[in-house]
């Protein structure tokens, strides 16, 4: 069954690294990690799609402001495998986010909402959460 | 009320009320024999925090609730939204403004919460549940690490 984790009032400042570890089930379709202000405002929506929404092995990044999605950023590098343990580290650098993927490559996404602190974290979809660390 | 006055009012309220955090996890894989490890900083102005484990927000097998004003740790369970019989433990070996590490072990018939000085607070698994999919950590604590092992 899909995991759902929501943390609020986090007050994370620039420089913080959010490390998330979990297991992706063998039949995974997609999972997502949202960082932002609240459920309607995501500075970063990080959404690896194994096989979902007509996409295969693609990472979608986007932002959401007052409930409206921004322009998608698509990544073709897809270092995720169904049925494996996954670790991603997301660093909030103030003007952008960098996400370190399991193959040690990085992707960046601009802080379009110009948030100064991250108060909201959501992890959902086909991902059995094991660890969350704020470093 | 003007929007400026409203903003002033809400800023004032935020100052008066201690900051409370909340982390909720659904569909968690916490089964008998497993452990939950938490690290966090207790907020300077914290008067309490709580760790809840159960099958849902209204059905808690363990409610672990340190209260700093009363200097007591209250444990309880909740069945369909109704609280049951409280257990009280006076061993509060941590205080606001400090970093702490807590380990909750989910044994066959009880929960053992290991405090930073090694003291264990024990609470029975009253309904003998074998799988607890819900976890909530809330109140005056800022989590820095959460682990299910």
From TrEMBL, chain A:
Q: What is this protein called?
A: Galectin
Source organism (scientific name): Phascolarctos cinereus
Q: Name one GO cellular component term.
A: extracellular space
Q: Which domain of life is it from?
A: Eukaryota
Q: Does the keyword ATP-binding apply?
A: no
Spans traversing the lipid bilayer? none
PANTHER family this protein is in? GALECTIN (PTHR11346), GALECTIN-1 (PTHR11346:SF97)
Which GO MF terms does the UniProt record name? lactose binding; laminin binding
Which keywords are on file for this protein?
Lectin
Q: Which InterPro entries match?
A: ConA-like_dom_sf, Galectin-like, Galectin_CRD
User: By its UniProt entry, which CDD domains does this protein fall under?
Assistant: GLECT
Start and end of every Galectin domain? Answer: 4-135
Statement: the UniProt record of this protein carries the keyword rRNA-binding: no
UniProtKB/TrEMBL annotation, chain B:
Galectin domain boundaries: 22-149
Query: Which Gene3D superfamilies has this protein been placed in?
Result: 2.60.120.200
Q: Which UniProt keywords apply?
A: Lectin
Query: A Pfam family in this protein?
Result: Gal-bind_lectin
| Single GO MF annotation | carbohydrate binding
**Signal peptide annotation:** none
Q: Which domain of life is it from?
A: Eukaryota
Q: What is this protein called?
A: Galectin
UniProt organism field:
Phascolarctos cinereus (Koala)
- Gene for this chain: LOC110205755
